Each structure stands twice: as structure tokens, then as C-alpha cells.
Amino acid sequence: MDFVLSDRIANVKPSAIREIFKMAADPRIIAFSAGNPSQEAFPVEEIRRWTAEILEQDPILALQYSLSEGYTPLRQRIAQFLKEKYAVGSADDDILITTGAEQALDLVTKVLCNEGDEVLCEAPSFVGALNTFRSYHCKLVGVEMEEDGINVSKLEEALKTHPNIKFMYLIPNFQNPSGVTMSLEKRKQVLELSKRYNVPVVEDNPYGDLRFAGEAVPAIKSMDDSGNVIYVGSFSKVLSPGLRVAYLCTPKALVSKLTVAKQCTDVHTPILNQLICYKFLTEFDFDAHIARCSALYQEKYQLMADTIRRCFSKNVQVTRPEGGLFLWCTLPEGTDLMDFCKKAIERGVAVVPGTAFMMEESDVSTSFRLNYSTPSDERIVKGIEILGQLTRELLD
Amino acid sequence: MDFVLSDRIANVKPSAIREIFKMAADPRIIAFSAGNPSQEAFPVEEIRRWTAEILEQDPILALQYSLSEGYTPLRQRIAQFLKEKYAVGSADDDILITTGAEQALDLVTKVLCNEGDEVLCEAPSFVGALNTFRSYHCKLVGVEMEEDGINVSKLEEALKTHPNIKFMYLIPNFQNPSGVTMSLEKRKQVLELSKRYNVPVVEDNPYGDLRFAGEAVPAIKSMDDSGNVIYVGSFSKVLSPGLRVAYLCTPKALVSKLTVAKQCTDVHTPILNQLICYKFLTEFDFDAHIARCSALYQEKYQLMADTIRRCFSKNVQVTRPEGGLFLWCTLPEGTDLMDFCKKAIERGVAVVPGTAFMMEESDVSTSFRLNYSTPSDERIVKGIEILGQLTRELLD
């Protein structure tokens, strides 16, 4: 039988990242292509102890069906955590637990967008999110990034000329893939535009805790008194991505609709995993753990940045992120990016071509993304040396 | 801000079951409304040991990002299990791990149906599945159930008159909610019709292992040589629903598209949970465990059936399932079902009205679903006595 596929799925190609991730599973390849947190950052000992305690004390709770909204004490604890730490969330908001942040975006799209509606995104943006929007047959409206975040006047232009934009998808901290952090001024302007044009903001903040330089900038949602901001947080980068636990903080009326959508998707997020996250937030020194993770990432970032400075052609521009997992390198205009990425993998180094993060893969990009959190120090040096040699051969 | 919702989500009401499940969380209510496996059936000791071993031996594997298709050894083991136990799956098929069987149905719908397409269902059928189909704006075409499964001549009639049916959703074993098992003859006819009208079958088999009477009937997929059958299995009813691990066995070409859809939904099913299921399938005596579960369910079924015989008005018809979790009771034509269910909950007993399982909640039903796997023996007797008293007051 030849299955006839839906138009929406014909609209999505396999994620370039996931496919490269598979290729990079070959242990001989030095993979700068992942988006993985460092395995050294996992609190393995504690997760062992918490899991044993949960299965000792509350086995039935951990193994039976549970509520679609998520485990109530975890939702309450997250609300308290967001309020105390980031001034995020009000009495009008509620928390919904999701199976990873990708599911949060899936549910928001399912609930807010009809087919053919538009989603405004930073260009470039996280390919996983773009594919989720595509999978509901949404059109992507890209607005270019600058060094301090999205170009706000082009953002307003887009809102004016595209009346079917249902939300703006933004990653204000250490954006994936560019590493850029949106300035406070721009965050205020974005919120203002959201109100003026009545278009909600989806503020995706998976990396926000992992700041290793500069000063924290308030979340857009922390400045919102209009109920316009849908905030997405995750345990993937601060605890473990394999557990697949994330959350939405958003006005209550929307949570009830998102819960209906979640019932139709996976009924509830695995409850054992939620209980582990609950222990993480209640029985652990979060700040000390984050300080350890940030120090680790700073070290790895510094090593990669220093090696780039030493080895790359001076014709390559490189961003200077203040946190997160990614560096973004731009080759001179006119360079054949795919040729560069292909040569890199032939020499044993995987990077993600910038085209993967554009609204259309045919959009022009001469950038590529490097991840510094996953590879060992030795591989960071060796891989960057190989890429550096390549940049010098091609560009100098 | 008033969020403008998508048409598709406006199409779904909160699942009656999940809402009743919430109400039934009141410990004073005797809940025959759940679909939970018995907590006595969870191999708690073993899950404790397996989890400790995984986090001791493979902590990084269990906590890091993983492949969207699922953990490869688990996929291989499931393929072998299905082949040996049910003759399900061929060299053309592949396994995709999903976050519960609900997600399997979500992905299949996302990949096969455009908005407005039709899905053929047994009437009544599992409300969670119906809501998933609705959440993609599919129209539901219901075909009536008989004592030996779907009415096959009406099924053919529906296929003839509805050219936009993209798949048939069937639960051949101990159907939810009716408890009915489809006869071998009808399974063959269904497969024949699937080929003749080129409409795939989604064969959902969450309860198939939990047979406590009668003889096993071959899976539709075991008789399929045309690649027309998408088979859905789950660990929820045989191991633990809280872990949210299920799987699809379906032709390879479709698995690759479903994997793309899964990347857009939750990236991958939590890997710790998959590793626990792998231990369950490789280090445990599955048959002995299933024999224990089936004996437990038989005992509970028998207690409920005997108490019904003793207490219910003779004007109530009751199905005789050979396995699974549910009994289906039908009041005489013309009875006010919602009045009955409301009076039952006022007296402290929750049942699920049959209308919840119909294609439209406005469709007529005088049936209700009873679950015998969750309540204690004492509560089964007490709850059925209360319902029995009510049936006698209303019907005798």
C-alpha cells in the first residue's frame, strides 16, 4: 500500500539537526552539531537517590495514570520558582507541564493557529520550533536578527503587513542558533508591539539560567501586565533532556485549552519524570548547581572561542554569547556554505549549516552553528583546528 | 488579552473521561469511571531494581537526548516480541516508540489526514482516540458494533459512500468501551475491505494480552500481506501507564514520516522510561506476569459480573468481555441516560455515559461503561449494589 500523506507533513522535512545528530553518532566524527547539554552537568548521584526514594515511597503515584495538567505540587513549585527568580507569572497565570519544550510549542500552535496562519520568528531560529510550526501548515514570517536581538522596526513592519500572524516566537536569551541576547530596550518594544497589534509573544527560555557573562536581562513576561506572553521553560538544559519535562506559564484560560490539546496528544507527561523534577526543585541547591553548570559552559565556551581566535581565518565573524550552548560563525558573503559544511564533515567535523535555521532552506545564509557544551575539551581543540585549517584554505 | 483559538481545538471538548477522572479523585466517590490498570498489577519491586540498575550502569544514556525513533535495542526487542507472540510484523515493517498509544494515534492522524478528512470508527469507541481525531479537524464516521465486533456490511457501506476516509480505527480485542472482541471472520473481512477500498486499518491493541477467558484471535496485522495495517501496542496496561511508553509497528516508509512528525512533537519518548520497558521485555518472565494480571482481572470481573447479576434490574443488558478492563451496560431504549449517571454520582458512584464514546455527544445512547480493574473488591460490591438499587428504582 502507498500511504497518501497529509499536506502538512509533506511540508516538513526531517530536521537537519536530528539527521546530522544521527550521522554524528559515528564516534569518529567530532560533533559540534548537537544541542545537548554537557553530560558532566547531570546530577547523576542525586537523580539516582531521588528516583530510588520516589519508587520506594510513592510507587503507585509514579506508575499509575496522572493528570493532564501535570503533577500539582510540581506545578505549584514551578510557579513559585518563576515568581521568585524571574518575577514571571501572576495570579492570572497557570502552569502546564509538557513533554519537553517542543511539545509546549506543538500545543500552542495546535491551539492558536489554523492552517495557513502565520508565525513570526527570528531569522535564524531554532529549527525544531520552525518544523513544529510547519507541521501545522503555518507560514513562517522571518525577521532578521541583530547583535542585540530581533530588528524591531522590521518586526513592526511585519506585524503591519501580515494580519494573519498568530504569535511571535522569540528566544530572548542566548538564542538558538545565534547565541544573541535581546536587549532590555528591545524586550520592552516587543511587548509594546505585542499589545498594539494584539499578537501574543511566545517567549522560549530554555537556556536563560545558563548565563556565564554579563548581566541578566528581565524576561519579557516579567514586564507583561496584559496577559500577552506565553512563557516556555524546560528542565532539559538544567537537569536532563532525556527526562523530557518542560512547562508553560500562561494565562489560565489558555492553559485549559492547552490541556485539552495535551489530552489528545500524550494524555500526560510521564509522572516518574515529573517527580524527579519536583525533587530537583525542592531538595537541591538549584543556584549552586546552576553556578557549576555555568562555570563548566564558560570554560568550554572560552576554550572554543580561544581556539577559533588562534585558528580561524580572520574573514570569519563569530558571535560572543553570554551563556547558553552555541556559537554562530559567519563566512564572507558569497561563500558556498554547503560546500564548506560538506568539506568539514569529510574531514571529520560536523557543524549545522545556517540554512537549516532559516524560514526557507532556500534562504541565503553563510553562517553555521557550533555547539561547545557536548564535545570533550580535547575534541573542541582538535575540531576547531580542522575547521580553522579549512577556513584558511577557502578564505585566505 | 483574549486569545483567538484555532478551529480545530474549538472542535474538541475536554474529554468526559478525564473530567470524570478528576471528579472521581474525590476519595469518597466509588469510581467505575477510570481506565486504569490495577495498581496491584505493577511489578513495583522489579521496576525499582531495573531503574536502579539503569541509573547505575548507563546514567548518561538514560538522561541525555536520544533518537526520535526510540531506543534501538527496545525497537528490535519489540519487533521480535510481536513476531514470536502474535506473528505481527514483517521485514517491510519497522517500530516507532511513542509517548503512550495516544501519541501513536496523534502522529498517524497528523501524517495521514488533512483537515476535513474522515476517520472511520467503531461506534461506540475510545473517547481519547475520537478526541485526537477531532483535534485535527477530522470528521468521524461511526459504524455500529455488534456482539462479535463491527457491523461489516455497514462498514463496507460507509467505505463506499465516504471517499475521504483516510483510515479505519479499530480496537479488535476487548474493545473500549464495549468490551467486545472482533471475530476471526470479521477480521478477515475487514482486511479484505481495507485492500478493496485502499483504506488502511489502525489496529489498536492495548488490552490484547489481558485475556482471561476464551481463545486468542489472531491480530488483523498478522494476516496482512499488503502493508495496509498500522498496529499500535502499549506498555500502559501490562507494565505501567505512568511511564507513557507505547509503539507503532507499521511499514517502513510510513515510520520515517511518523518520525518526522514525532520530532515536531516531543523529539523523543523519555529514554529512562524506554530503558525500563526494555528490561521488562528482556529480563522478566512476561508470560508469568501476564498470567498473574489476567487472573487478577478475571477475579475482579467475576466479582463485578456476579454482583450485577445479583443486584441489577433484569432490564439492563450487560456484555461479557473475555478480557480487558471494561463492562458495558445498556439500559432499555428511551431511558434518560444522563439522569441515570447524575443520580449515580449523587449516590457516590461514577460511571461513564455512553454518549462520551459516540461520534457526536448528541448521538443517542442508553449505555454506560464500568471499569473493574481499578476499584477494590469491597468497593466493587458496594458500588454495584448502589447502581443496582438505582436500576431497580428506575426500571422495575
User: Which two chains form the greatest contact, residue counts included?
Assistant: A-B, 84 and 85 residues
Output the strand order for the largest sheet of chain A: 2-9-8-7-6-3-4-5
Count of alpha and pi helical runs of chain A: 14
Can you tell me the CATH architecture of the largest domain in chain A?
A: 3-Layer(aba) Sandwich
Helix content of chain A: 40-55%
Brief write-up:
The structure is a homodimer of 396-residue chains. By secondary structure, chain A is α/β, with parallel strands linked by helices. Chain A is built from 14 helices and 14 strands.
Question: Can you characterise this structure?
Answer:
Two copies of one chain form a homodimer. The first copy, chain A, has 396 residues and is an alpha/beta fold. The first copy, chain A, has two domains: 146 residues, Aspartate Aminotransferase, domain 1 (Alpha-Beta Complex), CATH 3.90.1150.10; 219 residues, Type I PLP-dependent aspartate aminotransferase-like (Major domain) (Aspartate Aminotransferase, domain 2, 3-Layer(aba) Sandwich). In chain A, the strands form three sheets. Chain A has an eight-stranded mixed beta sheet, with helices on both faces. In chain A, strands 10-11-14-13 form a four-stranded antiparallel beta sheet. In chain A, β10 and β11 form a beta hairpin. In chain A, α3 crosses α11 and α8 runs parallel beside α9. The interface between A and B is large, with 84 and 85 residues.
